Amino acid sequence: MAKKITIDPITRLEGHGKIEIFLNDAGNVDRAFLQVPELRGFEKFCEGRAVEEMPRITPKICGVCPTAHHMASGKTLDDLYKVDPPPAAKKIRELVNSSFMAEDHTLHFFFLGGPDFIVGPQAPAGERNILGVIQKVGLDTGKKVISIRKRLRDIITKQGGKVIHPVCNLPGGVSKGVTKEDREEYIQTGKDAVEFAKFTLKAFEDIVLKNKEYVDVIVGDIYKHKTYYMGLVDENNKVNFYDGDIRVVDPEGKEFAKFKPSEYLNHIEEHVEPWSYMKFPYLKDVGWKGFVDGKDSGVYRVAPLARLNASDGMATPLAQAEYEKLYDTLGGKPVHSTLAYHWARLVELLYAAERLLELAQDKEILDPNVRNIPTAVPDEGIGVVEAPRGTLIHHYKTDKKGILTDVNLIVATQNNAAAISMSIERAAKLLIKNGDVSDRLLNMVEMAFRAYDPCLACATHSLPGKMPLEIKIRNREGRVIKTLMR
Amino acid sequence: MKTLVLGIGNPILSDDSVGIKIAIEIENRLREKYPEQNPPLGITVKEVSIEGFSILDEIAGYDRLILIDSIKTGKRKPGDVYKLSIENLSFTSHLSSSHGIDLATVIELGEKLGYKIPQIIDIYAIEVEDNTTFAEECTQKVRIKIPMIVDEIIEAIDGM
After folding, report:
1. Are A284 and A298 in contact (CB under 8 A)?
2. Residue A27 backbone class (left: φ over 0; alpha: ψ -120 to 50; beta: rest)
3. Which of A70, A158, A398, B135 is placed for a possible disulfide with B14 were both Cys, Cβ 3.0 to 4.6 Å?
4. A202 pLDDT exceeds 70?
């Protein structure tokens, strides 16, 4: 039955993400955009199921950020059953979420987005990858990355039950408390994670910030968009990944809106384009004006840089100092440079590590009371958390027996969809001139895309084990003149 | 020889789950066949739904890896099996990645970092029809082939 074959890299897989770039007669960019495959039928898949299944179903949507879905889903069940978890349960959830944010940001910086800077934007394609990063930072650093990531994932495994698809969240709390022994281990992991985050920020400073050429690329016009920014904030308007209100600032950094997660439909609408399966959320009160930036356009951004822009600072001391340094270096708030997402991600890595340590050191986390049993009749619930890639919204409706009748999710990358398309088009327009579509220039176009750490149709795991990205360059007649596979 | 049978896929995305379903069936068959052994023949079977890099955590420490996953080329019939080696997948290892890291890169990275990486790797990739619709079951064309694919892999394991 089995046959040995060699697979052609271009035609190997169907249903991949595509960047399409259209050139005019002069060989300059007329239009560029990103297309992603459609995953169908999630709402139908869920309808008719018991709503308690959602914290176990939704992490399976995405192999990249299952913990964030589990958290958003758990909070939605709290809202749906009108039950407030005990303080220890909230702290355990936030501890798990902080571990996840720290490990995910680590992975992105070193292995996914990092090659653009650690190896260098102009480096040959064959070196701009995870192996090139190891070559540059050294094997010991590589081992350090693997080790801290494993220990952070161990926290998710212990408290979440499973690292890949956590199962700990229940309506009104969590299924398991923290033992004294585990707490000691979490404290040590937290301390080491803080040191690791400091080490990573120092590496960023040495490799990127001390290199004028890199800094010029970061702050340059190619990668800049003046948009609105969105993120969860606590009662002091500090960044919070687990809980709080949704705050939006305008392109000048002034507060535009601040609202409860349950009010999201009053503020966010979705725009549909004929060429994309993905819907494009925008700010209702500003309106959809197309793929343009500025104060009159409802396009907003989420994820690390957006969270920092939308807040008044970080709730932990070391991250706050790094936050101030970022804005001092890049000319004050808000920062519109898309490539600064990489730096903001590291400020958040430090915050996640500090917060993990704070929570592990808090004695209340040992309280065995980790669940309030729900008694209310369910009807509708909304839950929001910050995923590594931005604000994640879950919204469920049920009948009186808790059987799902309606499901709406706005996932993190979707919030950034319009901005990602705009960033690709802007970079393409400014970089590709007179038909020169060299690999080096196309990589710089891709850098606009990678800074967001986008998760495309992240549920598919087909071989070769990554979501391929295809770049097609078309001439005025729409004929493909160059294709690249990433 | 420590052997790992690893089924990869998304359990709720129709044919994307085929690797997981086959791995579960292999485990059941091995347990039936060798009830006195735990694990049977010293073979560990795991099912996972993870992106590239995390696979390293799963495969480290084994001598032999049998990996079962889906593939969609559109060029063969759903349920057809490609038996691949790492070399077949290595064309992507030197490209920058949009998200996730391919298997060949994971293996190369693991070796560089001093992990004990399986020296024998057999990859069974099953051509699928639909991996974009949420469903717990595979499509019929793929589903009916699962028992035969399980037979083939068990035969290969027994012949070790």
Report:
1. yes
2. left
3. B135
4. yes
Nearest CA-CA partner of A306 in A205, A167, A413: A413
A111/chain B closest Cα distance in angstroms: 9
- Closest CA of chain A from B132, distance in Å: 5
Which residues in chain A have their CB less than 8 angstroms from residue B70's CB? 461-463
B64 to chain A, minimum CA–CA distance in Å? 19
Q: Which CATH superfamily is domain A84-224+337-373 in?
A: Cytochrome-c3 Hydrogenase, chain B (1.10.645.10)
Q: Which of B74, B88, B102 sits opposite A466 (nearest CB)?
A: B102
Do the Cβ atoms of A131 and B135 come within 8 Å? no
Partner-chain residue, chosen from B71, B96, B148, that has the shortest CB–CB distance to A1: B148
pLDDT tops 60 at residue A16: no
Domain tally, chain B: 1
Nearest chain A residue to B137 by CA: give it: A45
The residue whose two tokens read 């807040």 is A311
Structure tokens at A221: 């016009």
* Inter-chain residue contact A164 with B114, CB threshold 8 Å: no
Q: A153: number of CA atoms within 13 Å, CB side?
A: 21
pLDDT digits (tens, 9 = 90+) for A402-457: 999 999 998 888 899 899 999 999 999 999 898 888 878 888 888 888 888 877 64
CATH code of the domain in which B54 resides: 3.40.50.1450
Strands B64-71 and B3-8, by their bridges, are parallel
Q: Tell me, what DSSP letter sits at residue A37?
A: P
- A146, A164, A466 member nearest B101 (Cβ): A466
Could you report the per-residue pLDDT of A448-472, keeping only the tens digit for each?
888 888 776 443 444 444 445 667 7
B44, B61 contact by CB (below 8 A): no
Residue identified by tokens 């020296």 is B119
Domain span holding position B64: 3-158
Q: Which of B84, B98, B105 sits opposite A469 (nearest CB)?
A: B98
CB pair distance less than 8 Å for B12 and A60: yes
CA distance A321 to chain B (A): 30
| Residue A375, both tokens | 């008694």
Position A254 scores a pLDDT of 98
Mean pLDDT of A339-359: 97
Instruction: Extract the residue ranges of chain B whose pLDDT is less than 50.
Output: 91-99
Phi, psi of A174 (to 5 degrees): -130, 165
Residues 15-54 of B with CB under 8 A from A: 16, 48-54
Q: What's the rounded Cα separation, in Å, for the pair A249 and B59?
A: 45
Instruction: Confirm whether the ipTM is greater than 0.90.
Output: no
For residue B123, the chain A residue with the least C-alpha distance is: A463
- Identify the pLDDT of residue A443: 80
Q: Write down the domain spans for chain A.
A: 17-41+428-451+468-485, 84-224+337-373
Range of lowest pLDDT (A48-62, A122-136, A279-293): A122-136
Answer whether B84 sits within 8 Å of A5, measured CB to CB: yes
Which residue of chain B has the CA closest to A163? Answer: B50
Mutation target to probe the B interface, by most B beta carbons within 10 A, among A14, A107, A462 is A462
Q: What is the pLDDT of residues A69-112, one digit of tens each?
A: 999 999 999 999 999 999 999 999 999 999 999 999 998 888 87
A319 C-beta neighbours (distance < 10 Å), count: 27
| Predicted pLDDT at A246 | 98
